[in-house]
Design a protein that fits this description.
Length: about 280
């Protein structure tokens, strides 16, 4: 299947710009994929840089656009926002729809190597290569990119940036799964998508990747201290230790009282947008 021209599914005017949903046929996943793009008002007359947002478990392209409240500041700064889905859809692989943390809604932004997942679960290629190429071909955007995300998507944002020096001007994350090779969500996903060889998992783990990162892109991470998943799944202290050992710049902000929800994201998204805006030269 080849990458097709995106087809408009929905359109809403928002803060002077446009929030649009498109579907297209993806080469990476071999399925139809839906993504959302917010084009700020500046995109009417000039090309704008893009912040990619990777969502967490159970999400589609819609959660971030509906709940984070990012459009007002994106419109002020002149940044486009792009939110892909979190997995291929429309397939029916064994067990694909049985749990919230594996299969549909839980692609983990890796390229699966284990069958039957390897035919479709190539979300890493999709979000780092295919989707940006499609966006840059069909929309009024520059090749300046930033990346952020939440939880599983925070892990995704960190690994996409760490594995691709020069591709992103900046990276940030909310409550990321920092060390998937050492937590139940990551162990389940990686054994399913990548198989039993735990060595091969390390190529998809932010704590492992900072040790060898060629570019020391500063990591901005917000983490709620009242997040139910903090100790078992997210482990910000593991990222802190890995960054300290590697001399990798990390701004880890522990936010008292905040949980794992989009109320937490909405509370700090402005700081992240301004952080990315500065790096993208959008201010
Ligand atoms: N459903 C799971 C948790 C799933 C979850 O918290 N998902 C986060 C990302 S990891 C999310 O963004 N959910 C969708 C939403 O809040 O809109 C549970 O109840 O334990």
């Amino acid at each position: 299947m080849s990458n097709t021209t995106p087809e408009l599914v929905a359109s809403n005017k928002c803060f002077g710009g446009w929030l649009k949903r498109y579907k297209h046929t993806s080469k990476a996943t071999g399925t139809e994929m839906v993504f959302a793009i917010y084009l700020p008002p500046q995109a009417e007359t000039q090309k704008v840089p893009v912040l990619y947002w990777l969502s967490g478990l159970t999400c589609t392209d819609e959660n971030f656009m509906q709940k984070a409240g990012a459009q007002r500041v994106a419109a002020e700064l002149g940044i486009a926002l792009v939110a892909p889905d979190t997995s291929p859809r429309g397939t029916d692989l064994p067990g694909e729809h049985e749990s919230y943390d594996f299969g549909s809604g839980a692609g983990f932004y890796v390229n699966a190597t284990r069958e039957p997942w390897s035919a479709h679960y190539n979300m890493y290629d999709y979000v780092t290569e295919e989707l940006p190429a499609l966006i840059e071909q069909h929309f009024p955007v520059t090749e300046k990119r930033a990346i952020s995300g939440h939880s599983m998507g925070g892990h995704g944002a960190l690994i996409c940036a760490l594995k691709n020096p020069g591709r992103y001007a900046s990276v940030s994350a909310f409550a990321p799964i920092t060390n998937p090779v050492n937590c139940p969500w990551g162990e389940k996903a990686f054994s399913g998508y990548l198989g039993d060889d735990r060595e091969s998992w390390k190529a998809w783990d932010a704590c492992e990747l900072v040790a060898t990162a060629k570019e020391k892109l500063p990591l901005l991470v917000d983490q709620g201290e009242a997040d139910n998943f903090l100790e078992e799944q997210l482990k910000p202290e593991a990222l802190k230790a890995a960054c300290e050992a590697a001399g990798h710049p990390l701004e880890l902000r522990l936010q008292p009282g905040y949980d794992h929800s989009y109320f937490f994201i909405a509370s700090f998204i402005e700081d992240h947008l301004r952080h990315h805006g500065k790096a993208l030269g959008a201010l």
